[in-house]
Amino acid sequence: MDEVLLSDDMKKESKIELVMMILLLVLAIVVLIGGIYLWEYPIKKLILLVTTIVLFASLFFYGFLYARRYNLTVTKEEIRFKTLFRTVIIRLSDIKEYTYKRYSRMSAFYQFKLLYLDKKIVINTRYRDEFDQILQQR
Asked: Residue 98: beta bridge partners?
């Protein structure tokens, strides 16, 4: 087994998605109960509103699962990139070029775009300097 040079995940960031999902589900319950008993809101509009809130909560649930399963492992020979739906193994010698930029101003992540074997892969990591140094040494 090769020595792991860099390991990164998004477990800390997934907590935000989980909290937002729970808050939206609580909001849906409050709107449903309040709409029926307190405000006497029309039931068809109430169902539409609660369904919309639950839909947004499910999007946050997807974000939670995706961030929870995200894993990046870099060794001397390869990059192993695992998400919710796929696992990609990239040999460092196959990378032709790469670029990186800040994911967003509020995020600690950097987005690396790797070009290898005529394919583009986007990798997010918070360790810009370390990952850049590994890619330069390839």
From this structure: 114
Residue 2 scores a pLDDT above 80: no
60 neighbors 24 (Cβ within 8 angstroms):
yes
Pairing of strands 87-91, 4-9: unpaired
Structural domain spans, the chain: 4-68, 72-136
Do residues 113 and 100 touch, judged by C-beta distance below 8 A?
A: yes
**pLDDT score for 1:** 57
Interval 36-69: pLDDT, tens: 888 888 888 899 999 999 999 999 999 999 999 9
Residue 19 CB contacts under 8 Å (≥ 6 apart), including other chains? none
Given the structure tokens 């995020």, which residue do they identify? Answer: 107
> Cβ atoms within 10 A of the Cβ of 32, count?
17
Considering the domain 72-136 in this protein, what is its CATH number?
2.30.29.30
Phi, psi of 96 (to 5 degrees): -85, -45
E strand or H helix that includes residue 132: helix 128-136
pLDDT single digits (tens) 67-95:
999 999 999 889 998 988 999 999 988 89
